[in-house]
Amino acid sequence: MTISYAHLFRLSDECGIFEHANLTAPRVDNGYCVDDVARALVVAVREPEPDGRLLELVRVYLDFVIAALSEDGRCHNRRGSDRAWQDDPGVEDHWGRALWALGSVVARVPDLADIAMTHFAVAARRRSEFPRAMAFAALGASEVLRVHPGNAQAGALMADAADSIGAPTRRLDWRWPEPRLHYANAVLAEALLAVGAQLPGQGRIQADGLAMLRWLLDIETSDGHLSVTPMDGWTTGEARPGFDQQPIEVATLADACARAYDDTGDERWKDSVLLCQAWFHGANDMATPLIDPISGGCSDGLEHTGRNDNQSAESTLAMISTQQQARRLTSTS
Description:
By secondary structure, this protein is mainly alpha-helical. 53% of the residues lie in helices and 5% in strands. It is built from twelve helices and eight strands. The chain has a two-stranded antiparallel sheet. Strands 3-4 form a two-stranded antiparallel ribbon. A hairpin with a 2-residue loop joins β1 and β2. The protein starts with a helix and ends with a helix.
């Protein structure tokens, strides 16, 4: 158990994980959201040797995600500290992340796999108009296919996600399917990698995912360190570096590069995961570490004046996720 998990426990209670923080203290009045609880569930079930306390959190997070789902497969996102849902169910990013979390439980927690699969099957009947939501959902379907390789529903969801994301342009200066980079960009490339590797006859889609990821990594690297797309996005002609740089952008890049390494064995991708890890430790545009060595949490962003000292769930989970990928790849080398 690393110091980072101590901060994660502080952000959690018996209902879920609090969304916001004021410096190192959770803002209980802001309640919870599926976005962060699903992220926490993915991170928790990735741990190869979870202790009892972490397993208790897995059950709390899974119960929260299941409770957020409606009978027709749509998903609530925001829940108040009074445990009442504050929004109508929908199929935005939180729906996709819920599917990612459920699929991760199916693949990695045998004792909870059946109940997670039951609810995955309900939510996987839906589709979203948003490519990132479909990409997150495809990651969950990819997890399901790891243990149920013939699951037609998971395969259909992945194929539809690839259609939603689309192929990169043929412009050498813009190898991306959107006219502007937004947030969590690498998840689009990772979803295509998963589709290409797991669905038969989809080598072209895997090649598109690798082309997108190479281009994004080149765009987001400067002078040997990461200089990632800021919160407001980026397109050609705009100045770099941009701020506020968000940990979620780095974490999704680490996940995608780790998958590319697993699929290809190309050492460049492992090196890129380590570049992502180094960004949190100060190898970034401001030469400023984002990890708090006392709390184990992660700052909310890198700004032109330094770091944002709030330590929200999203940022801390992004840091932990990146550490997990780096640890996994270096332990097998």
